[in-house]
């Protein structure tokens, strides 16, 4: 099973009013999803975000957004450029593939040696 991890790609302080406590101390964070398994490390193109008030520690969901927050979100969303999508294989993958190739090659060799000419 692959372990998933969110990596921060962009953080910014917002000066908009919090819909909960009306304070002007909020932070928007954009995350990119990474998957780590025994055989591979994958960077996906999946981006998530979170707007959090630093004063009341509440997460501001899109239902509660004002027009100002939405406008600011769209601006920072354009600025958040994710890393390119990649898939890297681990050393364990390459060792197992090499071992599989050696076993298949040895099997073919012994089958060819055992057959009458």
Radius of gyration: 25 Å
Number of helices: 2
One letter per element, helices H and strands E, the order comes to EEEHEH
Q: What's the mean pLDDT score?
A: 89
Query: Biggest sheet, strands in spatial order?
Result: 1-2-3-4
Q: Given the helix and strand composition, which structural class is it?
A: alpha+beta
Say how many strands there are.
4
Uncertain segments are: none
Biggest sheet, in brief? 4 strands, antiparallel
Question: How much of the residues is beta strand, in percent?
Answer: 35-45%
Helix content: 25-40%
The rough form would be described as: rod-shaped
Q: Termini, distance in Å?
A: 49 Å
Number of domains: 1
Properties at a glance:
117 residues, alpha+beta
Describe this structure in words.
The chain is an alpha+beta fold and 117 residues long. It has one domain. It is 32% helix and 35% strand. The protein has two helices and four strands, in the order E-E-E-H-E-H. It has helices at residues 67-79, 91-114; strands spanning 3-14, 26-36, 40-53, 86-89. It has a four-stranded antiparallel β-sheet. The protein is rod-shaped. The model has no long low-confidence stretch (mean pLDDT 89).
Could you give a short description of this structure?
The chain crosses the membrane at residues 91-112. The chain has 117 residues and is of the alpha+beta class.
Draw up the topology in text.
Elements (H helix, E strand, L loop, with lengths): L2 E12 L11 E11 L3 E14 L13 H13 L6 E4 L1 H24 L3
Antiparallel strand pairs: 1-2, 2-3, 3-4
């Amino acid at each position: 099973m692959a372990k998933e991890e969110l990596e921060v790609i962009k953080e910014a302080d917002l000066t908009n009013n919090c819909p909960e406590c009306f304070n002007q101390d909020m932070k928007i964070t954009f995350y990119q999803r990474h998957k780590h398994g025994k055989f591979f490390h994958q960077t996906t193109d999946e981006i998530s975000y979170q707007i959090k008030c630093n004063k009341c520690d509440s997460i501001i969901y899109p239902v509660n957004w004002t027009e100002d927050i939405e406008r600011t979100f769209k601006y920072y969303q354009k600025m958040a450029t994710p890393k390119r999508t990649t898939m890297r294989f681990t050393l364990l993958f390459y060792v197992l593939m090499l071992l599989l190739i050696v076993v298949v090659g040895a099997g073919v060799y012994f089958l060819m040696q055992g057959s009458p000419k």
